[in-house]
């Protein structure tokens, strides 16, 4: 394992850079007034990013395919959510289907 | 002092259904935190390490990557670079939810509480007061549950063998998917998300983690030219 000092420095840099990325948006927006259209575009961009996060974490693992079980669970959860199922049911179904498929030997 | 004030306002604004959703999101985050803490300790890190990183960085997927690269013997520089790249999406997130944070100290703390879950909950609400309440309640909850889960997992360590066997890896994307659905009300957003996700998935095999998600913003081009319709 790495030298503790190097490790601490790495954590500090990651934490600092992450905070800077988080704070940059609100700071910028407090300085400039943006037209309503641009504001709507920013909201759309957040939704687009979130859907991409869902898709990539559901389907990929280390630049490869994550297997069948995980996306199948997520898809089942998504369908239930879309049909208006309670949130707890959605989450537990997703985990349950992924776990069940793996129990049956599906990767 | 202002934390108490924030909590009191949250209590008044949030209804039971939203509170229950936020509690479940925090619980799910905590469970993923348990697997994060266990992973970190079994790959040789001391117990306090994932907990400290959890509080300071407070961004799950980048922490998994950061700890994983270090554990595999990768250089600290590449571990930090990979983590920062994954967290780059917080910049556009911040542009979208800036109004939710407030000013001064609130903006500083509120920025730190920015994550997929708090952002998606804020986007799902229409009224500014409820947006603010959902964002802060979820953000503060994650600030507690993520490191607490990591601590629990780190203490349990090798007792937790394979989190994937319980389908825990399907939980995070399912949580986010359920919460992002209300933001996809407009057809314009749906089209942008569809194009963006296709781009992200197509580039995932060749680009380092984080970059494909950023490239999904290409999907916004699909909305250009349609913006005047409404």
From TrEMBL, chain A:
Q: Which parts pass through the membrane? A: 6-28, 40-60, 80-104
Kindly state which keywords UniProt assigns to this record, in alphabetical order.
Answer: Membrane, Transmembrane, Transmembrane helix
Q: Which InterPro entries match?
A: Brnchd-chn_aa_trnsp_AzlD
Taxonomically, the superkingdom here is Bacteria
Would the keyword Transmembrane turn up in this protein's UniProt record?
A: yes
Q: What is this protein called?
A: AzlD domain-containing protein
Origin organism is Halostreptopolyspora alba
């Amino acid at each position: 394992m790495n030298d503790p000092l190097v490790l601490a420095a790495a954590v500090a840099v990651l934490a600092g850079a992450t905070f800077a990325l988080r704070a940059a948006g609100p700071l910028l927006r407090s300085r400039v007034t943006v037209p309503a259209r641009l504001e709507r575009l920013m909201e759309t961009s957040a939704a687009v990013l979130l859907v991409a996060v869902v898709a990539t974490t559901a389907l990929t693992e280390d630049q490869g395919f994550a297997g069948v079980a995980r996306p199948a669970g997520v898809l089942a959860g998504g369908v239930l959510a879309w049909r208006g199922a309670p949130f707890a049911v959605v989450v537990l179904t997703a985990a349950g289907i992924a776990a069940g498929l793996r129990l049956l030997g599906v990767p | 002092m202002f934390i108490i004030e924030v909590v009191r306002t949250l209590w008044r604004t949030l209804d039971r259904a939203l509170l229950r959703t936020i509690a479940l999101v925090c619980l799910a985050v905590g469970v993923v935190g348990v697997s994060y803490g266990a992973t970190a300790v079994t790959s040789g890190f001391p117990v306090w390490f994932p907990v400290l990183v959890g509080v300071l960085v407070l961004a799950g997927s980048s922490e998994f990557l950061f700890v994983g690269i270090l554990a595999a013997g990768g250089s600290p520089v590449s571990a930090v670079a990979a983590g920062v790249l994954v967290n780059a999406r917080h910049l556009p997130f911040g542009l979208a939810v800036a109004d939710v944070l407030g000013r001064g100290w609130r903006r500083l703390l509120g920025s730190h509480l920015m994550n997929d879950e708090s952002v998606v909950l804020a986007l799902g609400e229409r009224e500014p007061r409820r947006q603010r309440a959902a964002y802060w309640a979820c953000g503060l909850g994650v600030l507690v549950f993520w490191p607490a889960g990591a601590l629990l997992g780190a203490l349990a360590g090798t007792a937790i063998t394979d989190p994937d066997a319980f389908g825990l890896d399907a939980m995070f994307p399912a949580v986010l998917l359920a919460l992002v659905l209300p933001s996809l009300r407009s057809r314009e957003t749906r089209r942008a998300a569809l194009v963006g996700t296709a781009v992200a998935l197509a580039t995932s095999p060749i680009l380092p983690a984080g970059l494909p998600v950023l490239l999904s913003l290409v999907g916004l081009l699909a909305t250009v030219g349609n913006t005047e319709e409404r």
